[in-house]
Amino acid sequence: MNTIPTTALALAEIGLPVLPLRAEKRPFGNCRACNDLACGGRPNMAAPGPCVCPWPCHGWAAATTDHHVLASPQWTAAWRRARAIGYHPGGAHVTVVDLDNADAVDWARTNLPPTTTVPTTRGEHWIYRGTMRSVNAVRPGADIKSTMSYARWLGPGTGTLAELPDVVRALAEKKSTPVRPTPRDLTVPAPAGGGECPHRSPAYLERGIAMAEQRITEAASAVHATVYRTFLAVLSAHGRCGCLTEAHIGRLFIAAQAKGESPRHCTDAWSNARTALGM
Q1: Ramachandran bin of 141, using left for φ above 0, alpha for ψ from -120 to 50, beta for the remaining angles
Q2: Residue partners of 247: CB distance under 8 A and separation at least 6
Q3: Who contacts 210 (Cβ-Cβ below 8 Å, separation ≥6)?
Q4: Degrees (nearest 5) of the Cα angle 234, 204, 279?
Q5: Would you put residue 25 in left (φ > 0), alpha (ψ -120 to 50) or beta?
Q6: Angle at CA of residue 242, ends 177 and 209, nearest 5°
Q7: What are the tens digits of pLDDT across the range 6-37?
Q8: 252 and 217 in contact (C-beta within 8 Å)?
Q9: 3-state secondary structure the chain
Q10: Phi and psi (nearest 5°) for 117?
Q11: pLDDT tens digits for 114-165?
């Protein structure tokens, strides 16, 4: 008997925003109507959006506590195919320190205050009360999952939930200090029809960049191909209206370099994407 749907509903009732995960423990992909954020995003993302898609689209942003959504025909079908339950830590006002191996767990036991811990396949999740931005690879074998991220539900764990300590926040700050790459200048032709931006609001672009960063950050393999496809999607959606700035491009380059891409690879991938789109 598949107990995943029942467990998901019970978690939602106590305030944990949940979403179904596929066999490889990743969210379901966007539906055809929402590919490349053509819909503009989901209402529970960083900024409001117009998407009312009934499917569990958009990764972490699909997580919800709404019983009517969770029990809808589309979500019920997804729950039947799900192999695990994911949740949005930031939506539950917690931060997960994901420790991926024994060495990382030993480090946490020495350097972090005790809190609720949950065993994982290879290590442990240390969960704290409070939110922060999510950052991968803050130290060997350690990721931080909170806002704009998802974690796998593995049970309630043991221990008392502690407040998010400064040492965890400091890990994210330390990770964000690499030298900012210098992206290539973006010069694109103005769109036909007077050159006005076709997007519904500035939040649409922000959501697109945030989702692109997430797509790169969460790439488990084929990073170079993922970076190129993400650059291609961003340029396809936002490259012809003049909205993209060097700050936006720099964010994408930083996300790619955090996954091991060199500045040259980033520049080449961006240039190749522009060429493919006739820019």
Answers
A1: left
A2: none
A3: 45, 46, 148
A4: 30
A5: left
A6: 40
A7: 999 999 999 999 999 988 788 888 888 877 66
A8: no
A9: CCCHHHHHHHHHHCCCCEEEECCCCCECCCCHHHHHHCCCCCCCCCCCCCCCCCCCCCHHHHCECCHHHHCCHHHHHHHHHCCEEEECCHHHCEEEEEECCHHHHHHHHHHCCCCEEEECCCCEEEEEECCCECEEEEECCEEEEEEECCEECCCCCECCCEECCHHHHHHHHHHCCCCCCCCCCCCCCCCCCCCCCCCCCHHHHHHHHHHHHHHHHCCCCCHHHHHHHHHHHHHHHHCCCCCCCHHHHHHHHHHHHHCCCCHHHHHHHHHHHHHHCCC
A10: -125, 145
A11: 999 999 999 999 999 999 988 888 899 999 999 888 999 999 999 999 999 9
pTM score above 0.85: no
The residues, any chain, with a CB within 8 Å of residue 228's CB and separated by 6 or more, are 269, 272, 273
Q: Encoding tokens for residue 248? A: 């936006």
CA 173/CA 170 separation, integer angstroms: 5
Tell me the C-alpha to C-alpha distance, in Å, between residue 116 and each of 49, 97, 120, 121, 124: 34, 11, 13, 17, 10
Pairing of strands 94-99, 142-145: antiparallel
Half-sphere exposure of 32 (CA within 13 A, CB side): 0
β-pairing, 162-163 vs 124-129, is: parallel
Residue with tokens 């993922």: 226
Tokens of 125: 């999740």
Structure tokens at 243: 């909205």
First to last CA, the chain: 53
